[in-house]
Amino acid sequence: MEKLNILLAASEVVPFAKSGGLADVSGALPKALKNLGHDIRVVMPRYYVVDKEKYNLKLLEGALSVHMGSMGEMWAGVYEGRLPQSDVPIYFIEYDEFFGRKGLYGEDSEGFSDNDNRYIFFSKAVMQLAKKLDFRPDVIHANDWHTAHIPLLLNTTYAFDSNFKNTGSLLSIHNLEHQGKFYKGAMDVLGVGWEHFTVNELEEYDGVNFLKGGIVHADAINAVSKKYAQEIRTSEFGFGLQSLINTYEYKLFGVLNGVDYEEWSPSIDKLIPYTFDIDSLEGKEKCKSELQKEFNLPQRSEVPMIGFVGRLAEQKGIGLIASCFDRILEMDIQIVLLGTGEKWAEKFFKEKAEQYPEKFASYIGYDNKIAHKIEAASDMFLMPSLFEPCGLNQIYSLRYGTIPIVRATGGLDDTIENYDAYHKSGTGFKFYDATASGLLNTVQWAVDIYYNDKEGINALRTNAMSKRYEWSKAAQGYEEIYHHIISGRLNSNNI
Description:
Elements: E1 5-9, H1 21-35, E2 39-45, E3 58-59, E4 64-67, E5 73-82, E6 89-94, H2 96-99, E7 106-107, E8 110-111, H3 115-133, E9 139-143, H4 149-155, E10 168-173, E11 181-183, H5 186-190, E12 203-204, E13 207-209, H6 210-217, E14 220-223, H7 226-231, H8 242-247, E15 252-254, H9 282-294, E16 305-309, H10 318-323, H11 325-328, E17 334-339, H12 343-355, E18 360-364, H13 368-377, E19 380-383, H14 393-399, E20 403-407, H15 410-415, E21 429-431, H16 436-452, H17 454-466, H18 471-494
Helix pairs in contact: 1-18, 4-6, 9-13
């Protein structure tokens, strides 16, 4: 395929700033697209946590002029760096009043009150940066509500700007639950005209919904797995936007995310005490012993260890786990949990670790090294999400021979094949109803197989470790969407 100019805008990018899977995607996808021969540039805010010296960021000459409607003109600085282990340029928009803070989106579980202005500013700065660099993108790839303003800006403020004459837009939805809903006064800052404050565009219950506007104006929409693209069209998973998404289903795609196997591979992982692979699993047993020691659990090689790494949030099925946790711990198992999130959940799991010191250990917080250790050491991995657009930990688990126990939703359903005892096929254990009984029964099933079907467990582990979800394949899926967008815009321009 022909070389494209692509500008990817995201509110977070690994390794510079991360709160979820969006950062992993925006850090890995550009490198895969670069390998396909495209000219890809990445833009994100320069948060307080982004260390300019550590990443050798260089300040570009001249500031960006950003017109913020009723707030007037503001000026942003721009730093340039490279994505690690690549020559993909990444640009950081610096404006201390908006981004010089400790948190990305808020602090102490509360979002910043001016998040509407922060990300209107960022989206407008992205457009101005392209002009400053004289970079004429074929496609601007926006991500989630934080940059959902960009498709609207392309169709309004910049509709007759020669820099964007043939520029199309893709909006990736990584989590539809978060839509960017704010007071309608944000329309004056956005500055695209109140004629766009309608139920068919930005208006929702007399406020603005930025993701809604992005869905309407984007040339294409991507949900980050095929199953999630189907689910967001239903009332259960649509969070009030299912009718709108069904209206625009003709431009909806579902490209599954890939995994960076340079970071998540047990044969080369520098964060685990012992490496291993499909044909040599001794290191996995040693990792298990080391993790038991680190978390003060009895060092028993025969007991199944179940890992959990993730946000302690309702979306991740924390409520389901809590409601049957005592029943789960009646089994002869060990569980190690790493995560932070809702205060009740943090308190609950701290107390359970004290109540069951020989069976359960928790680390309330996030530590990337511990996350790698849990993936490597565990026999199984628990992901009972109420919804999961793509999910990455279950894919990491496959590579580490750690059998996923998942709810069959979104990317979890797309990537995990249920165990078939007769054929010794499958890569994990799935349940379908979001109930405590469904979760408990599936954990009991998995533990029973572990103790009583060694041939089955070995087959599951071999099947899992043989799977690959490469970014190179995902990038080809995005490449096809980009070309679809460009051909559509060129045809419409020729009418």
